[in-house]
Design a protein that fits this description.
This protein has 473 residues and is mostly beta strands. It has one helix and 37 strands. The strands form six sheets. A 16-stranded mixed beta sheet has the order 22-23-24-25-26-27-28-29-30-31-32-33-34-35-36-37, with no helix packed on it. The chain starts with a helix and ends in a 26-residue tail after the last strand.
């Protein structure tokens, strides 16, 4: 009995090794596929993780050329590239699903095919890909291979969401701008800036299209849905894990290690920012490489920023009114006051003012920022007309309703189109299209896959208010 089991197991092992190969007689047919290997058999569903297939087909004697058909599972979103051979689409008759062709091959032809998948369902998807000689009918049964596509990972905010954070290289951005490593479209604007000690007083806002996917400490800040700003940095304590949320919407992730809980950075790996907690004061501190120290209260809200020389910016957090920012005072005792005028949305900032008087004003509809107006009457207007989400900014215009920038998104809130204003001839400026689910070249195509970007575009700088002057439209 034991010998019988051993022989059976051996036969099963041999069958497993040979199940992706097939011996056929190519006489009288267009050829046949003799082997099909696909590795790895499981990939991430973000269109970035490749599975590489090698297919071998036999061509009848005296025949030149071969057409390979790739039959994909109908319940999955899978794309592929034919490396070194011609990719063909479906014939429209339902008899050929699409595949690869080598018009000059004789005898034996080898194909290398790169597969990728997209899966936003939340659960893993499994299907069978079949490689078969096109139009061979029953003479070539084809060879199947299984592929599992795991659900797309939640965008990791521990990577730089804006790719321009604190003067970093912007090579991963395209357009105005889309971070092509994760699809995040972001808008950065500066509302106020006066130079001085410890950096003076500067207020900037950053909107991120993927903010709602990041499990943030709050969906809406003092400037509305998906906006973060200079003084809204947070420490989010989650037991043995702590997140440092930056003004850009990115985060650092720390883990409590050892007795006394030393906070060790676990993501991103290339950051030298240090997190510590003072049990005596119940305050958190972030220490940066340049010596800047950011202090957070026991609830995790930013309350001060001090440079290496001790020059300090103080943030007055109004704990009695939903921890909104009441005012900010710099090292020269200059005060920037945040005003809140809408009792229906008590945490949305309606204006900021300094010792001279009101400066920037903000307007909202249903909690979404729709307009920013500066003292010289220049302004930004925000539209939310994208079909994939009512909180996605589709267009930014100036005081004359002239387009400043335009965006479109996919169902995962990733940017797919970015464009600046039209030029004098009415032609779009810096119009780019990012493809996440296909790899065919197109004008200004920014490839976001395992291939290199077609062109690397540096990020556009934020429009800035310098001194007390706002950007003019």
């Amino acid at each position: 009995m034991k010998r019988t089991l051993c022989v059976f197991a051996l036969l099963m092992f041999v069958f497993a090794l040979s199940s992706n190969s097939f011996a056929c007689d190519p006489v009288g047919n267009p050829g046949c596929v003799t082997s099909f290997t696909l590795a790895p058999g499981e990939i991430h569903g973000d269109n970035l993780d490749p599975a590489t297939a090698t297919v071998t087909a036999t061509i009848p004697s005296g025949q030149t050329g071969h057409i390979l058909e790739i039959r994909l599972p109908g319940n999955m979103s899978i794309g592929y590239i034919c490396a070194g051979t011609t990719k063909l689409g479906p014939d429209g008759q339902g008899t050929y699903a699409g595949g690869c062709a080598d018009r000059n091959a004789t005898g034996t032809v080898n194909y290398t095919i790169q597969f990728s998948g997209y899966n936003a369902t939340g659960t893993a998807q499994n299907g069978t890909i079949t490689a078969v000689t096109a139009y061979a009918g029953t003479t070539d049964p084809g060879i199947p291979a299984s592929l599992t596509v795991d659900p797309i990972l939640t965008p990791d905010p521990s990577v730089d969401m804006t790719c321009c954070e604190r003067n970093k290289d912007c090579g991963a951005c395209a357009g105005h701008p889309i971070n092509v490593t994760n699809g995040n479209t972001f808008i950065n604007q500066r509302d106020y800036s006066i130079p001085g000690l410890a950096g003076g007083l500067t207020l900037s806002r950053t909107w991120n299209s993927l903010w709602s996917f990041l499990s943030p400490p709050e969906q809406s800040g003092i400037f509305g849905d998906s906006w973060r700003s200079t003084f809204e940095e947070r420490i989010q304590s989650l037991g043995s894990i702590a997140n440092y949320w930056k003004e850009s919407g990115s985060r650092n992730v720390y883990q409590c290690v050892g007795t006394g809980c030393s906070w060790q950075l676990i993501a991103p790996a290339n950051d030298q920012t240090v997190l510590s907690f003072n049990s005596g004061t119940s305050q958190w501190t972030i220490t940066e490489k340049d010596g800047t120290i950011r202090t957070f209260n026991s609830a995790g809200y930013l309350i001060s920023i001090a440079d290496l020389n001790g020059n300090t910016i103080s943030i007055n957090v109004d704990a009695a009114n939903q921890n909104r920012i009441a005012s900010v005072t710099d090292a020269a005792s200059r005060v920037l006051t945040f005003n809140y005028a809408d009792p229906a949305f008590p945490r949305l900032c309606s204006s900021i003012s300094d010792s001279v008087g009101p400066f920037t004003t903000y307007h909202y509809v249903s909690g979404k920022l729709t307009q920013v107006v500066y003292p010289d009457a220049s302004q930004y207007n925000f539209s939310y007309n994208d079909a994939n989400g009512t909180t996605l900014i589709s267009e930014v215009t100036d005081s004359q309703l002239r387009r400043i920038e335009y965006h479109m998104y996919d169902s995962s809130r990733r940017g797919v189109i970015s464009q600046l204003a039209n030029d004098s001839a009415g032609q779009p400026v810096q119009h780019i299209h990012v493809y996440y689910q296909q790899f065919a070249p197109y004008q200004n195509l920014v490839r976001n896959a395992t291939t290199l970007l077609q062109r690397r575009v540096r990020c556009m700088p934020a429009r800035r208010a310098v001194g007390r002057m706002a950007p003019r439209n």
